[in-house]
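Q: Start with the shorter request: fold the first protein.
A: Done. Sequence, then structure:
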Amino acid sequence: MTDNTSHESTEKDPHNVSTGIQDTQGGRRRLEESDFRPDPEIRARNENFMMTIMAVSFTMIIALILAMSGLTSAFMADQVKGLRLVAWSMALFVPATILHLIVAKIWLGGLVTENIKKNAHLLVISLLGAILFLWALSSNTVFVFAGFIGANIFFPLFGRYILSLEQPFPKTHMGSFNLTPFSRTSMIMILFIGVIVGMGIGMEDAGSQATGRGLFARNIVAKRIGMTHRSIDLIFYHLIKPYRVVEAITTARKRGVAVRILIRKGTLLVNASDIQELLRAGAIVRVLPPDTPSWLRPYLIIDKRILIQGSKGWADDPIPFQRQLVIQANLILFERIRRMENTFDILWEHSKAVPLLQTTSPSKI
């Protein structure tokens, strides 16, 4: 008699009929991918959390792009402007990273507790980098590049520490992935887009910009003085039609900007009324010592980070061998700006103060 039990059970099992796959030796069905699929509600929940995690991760990537843009613009144009852009990126990156941790904790129900102490050194070093960044941002220093060093320490270490506390993310379905801000693809995108955006910002305000001579140059100088936040250090020998520059310095003094001015002895006669007007506004004016080097040329340092230098570029008439005014403010020239500031400080210590007269003649300008 033929045993048809196996054949009959196959016909009566609709699941085996649909799959049509059976182990010929053991008589048991082989497991398929569909058998491991989670409950539809769980799968929908996982996909919603995954989309949220990807959105937060993309926000972190945007913050890193802003940081790269700030670094690029600092090399091209203005170092402090680039540092402020990095500050905005840090203000976006920190809450986005913490939100990433919160979402992961709610989704997965816990943290990798052993990594809290194991990777604590990453958190400590990243916070030290943040302190260095905040010092460079808030202090009146020429060492602005230290802020970028601190930011480059903070971003990867702080992000790595927070992400190390999260449980591994499950795949919601075949082909799903988690967009992380420190993957190879993300870093390439951050570098590429960040440099392009930074170059666009840098082109708006060139870091080494020739301003020419005469009225055009004086207007740019007055505009730069009007943007001053902390300090103005100026050496000049003769101001032709100085009312724009004097008015800009006077307005800056009303905002509390510290102003130091060095002049030659002959300038007291040539620009006497303008110097007295600056003294009344609160600027401190001193006369250079007699043994001042002959190679010293007029220049202006704004906020200890922007150098405006030239020979007699503020004059209207062309003079042989005179140099145009040049504005230098990018990160590459920080050492030159620092040396010029040190030179000013040395000359300032050996100069004689100009007194404020009680009665002054009206300006002839």
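Q: Next, the second protein, separately.
A: Sequence, then structure:
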Amino acid sequence: MVRVKGSPLLSVLLVGLTLAIFAVDAFTPLDVAIAVMYVVVVLLSASVWSRRGVLLTSAACLGLTLLAYALSHAAYFSGPASGRMVVSLAAVGITAWLVLHWQAATNALIAREEALHCSQAQLAHVTRVTMLGELAASIAHEVNQPLAAIATNGEASLRWLNRPQPDLDEARAAIGSLLEAAGRASEVIRRIRALARRSDPSHLPLALNDVALEAAGLVRRELASHQVTLKLDLAPGLPLVRGDRVQLQQVLINLLMNAMQAMQRCAPGQAVLVLQTRACERGGVTCSVTDTGPGIPAEHLPKLFDAFFSTKEDGMGMGLPICRSIVETHGGRIWAAGPEEARAGAVLHFSLPAMGGHSA
């Protein structure tokens, strides 16, 4: 069950209110149903305590109602007073029943939302792994390049050292190049492992330009193999955003891959992809992916981010909905430009709120 977190001060105030109602009900001659005010205590208890706390509070209110009646009418029987007591008991009991049902429904709703969030995270992870499978050839090439450089520089180092008069300066330079290539290979593997790893999102301060450069680096080889020219237009001095690096990379890679696939029928040299970042007028950062493909039909724009909707024959229609879920989880929004803005090709934007007072 989801536990209710309440303020200690509110708990003290509820106890004080309960005692005040009891004192007025038991020790004043007012001929009104003062005990009905316990309804307020029961209602407020749901925002402070869990189900057990509400039950104990309701039982205490019922008991105090009976005790106040016994103290104030011990010497004589009063029909009207007994009627007011019965009304108060019924009001408190009915309120307690309604509060418990409301609390149970709220807990069930929160549990369903948590389960939905977990399912979305699992689906996003599966999509990332699938996306990595599509990039397998490009990733292999990206890793193979620094490995080949390592081998070449290692052989060169041995040659410089095995000469009759070893050339230590050349050997040091070759070993330095070897270490640099090893660092590049390690960085590529780190990024791949981060995308493949299944872990809870971690929202930290990020420079969106850095995330864009990393995402572009992972797909650059794939774009080149499809004869797509990638142009980066990253504005300097953008404010930092708070987000999960891997999830935002997933959004960018998905948008870039979708744009690449949309330009498959472009003539040689005509497939151009632009990745752009800009500061928003109202604060925050906007990232845009623009292609020179056939564009998005106006009738498809309203349902472009709906689950299972796809303009591709073999598409599952989950990439863009996952992107929307990730962006909205980060407090941003994602949208496609209309025909008046995207005069040639398609333009997809997403914006994220900025962290106050930070820039990168």
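Q: Describe the second briefly.
A: The longest helix spans residues 79-134. The radius of gyration is 33 Å.
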